[in-house]
Amino acid sequence: MTDCVPGGVLERPRPDCEPALQEPVRGLRRCAWCRELVQPGRKAGQDSSGEPLYACDKPCCGPEAGEPAPVEAGRRFRFREYAIEPDREPDGEPVTYAAQCAVCEEIGSAEKDEETGTDWMLAHLRANPEHLTYREIVTRPCRAVPGDWL
User: Quick check: pTM over 0.85?
Assistant: First the structure.
């Protein structure tokens, strides 16, 4: 294990040493070639998405050194708009209807037919005349539809 070295990595905490920075902070940039934090860094072009690339002052880093190291998967994020809409795809779940007794919280079976809930409520009322309050439960599947990239 290494201890705190100027510009190095702190793997074993020591009270007389500040921990090394793990992620970029304001004013610091990560070198696209060696992935070290540089301050302030020199701009060295752009990547395929238009984001600026930064390089440190090492001779093996910068545009003259060739292509930068690939960024680890999952490190860059982009925002995207989504719309929520009913799922009407052929393989989508069907809309189902059920009923629930509000007194004993018993739930009837969920079916595609809208009248199933009403039929169950009447049957439950016949069996339990004091149960007069019911809920209709409609399950309507939805899906997220990707929109424009922001």
Answer: no
Task: Estimate to the nearest angstrom the gap between the alpha carbon of 80 and the chain centroid.
Answer: 11
Query: Residue 120 has which token pair?
Result: 């169950």
Tell me how far apart the alpha carbons of residues 150 and 148 are, in angstroms, rounded to a whole number: 6
Q: Average pLDDT for residues 7-11, to the nearest whole number?
A: 42
In this predicted model, what pLDDT tens digit does every residue of 89-146 receive, in sequence order?
888 899 999 999 999 999 999 999 989 899 999 999 999 999 999 999 999 999 999 8
DSSP character at residue 65: G
Given a cut of 50, whether residue 7 has pLDDT beyond it is no
CB 90 within 8 A of CB 149: no
- Looking at 29, 47, 67, the residue that finishes a domain is 67
Whose tokens are 């020199």? That residue is 42
Q: Which of 25, 52, 67 is the last residue of a domain?
A: 67
Domain contains 79? no
Query: Which structural domain range is residue 13 located in?
Result: 1-67
Is the torsion defined by CA of 37, 41, 45, 48 positive or negative? positive
Distance CA 150, CA 141 (A): 27
